[in-house]
Design brief:
Blueprint (H helix, E strand, L loop, with lengths): L24 H11 L6 E5 L2 E5 L6 E5 L2 E6 L2 E5 L3 H7 L5 E5 L2 E4 L3 E5 L6 E5 L4 E4 L4 H8 L2
Antiparallel strand pairs: 1-2, 1-5, 3-4, 3-7, 4-5, 6-7, 8-9, 9-10
Length: about 150
Amino acid sequence: MQIEIKLDDSFREPKVLICAAAVTEEVQDILDRLSEQTPRIITGLREEKLEVLEPEKLIRIYASGGKVLAVTEQGEYILRQRLYELEKQLDGRKFVRISNSEMINLSQVRTFDLSFTGTVCVRLSNGDVTYVSRRCVPKIKKILGI
């Protein structure tokens, strides 16, 4: 993607022009982010208190027992959003889906263990261990440059 910024005193308000051959997923993501009117925050319920969660402090988000849970250093929180909503809301350069029921924060990963045949073991900063589903392995390998 190419980005060009043109500074000109004659413009009264910012103008965004997107040039592309087609509306790709990347273009749609840009449109969605630009059209958001209010910043969307993530809130989690823990010990009957609703807390605002900072995305960079999220370690993993997963679905279990019909609930969506977020893990931070402070513990687990129940979220009201669905996993697919969070996937759209969170920065795709930092958060990656590793299975149908889980996303991880790449900045909270300690190691990726590729020694298991056909799967990838992920060790997170809080000591949790999780696995990349076979369907998501190619995406993870691409992110890792393998």
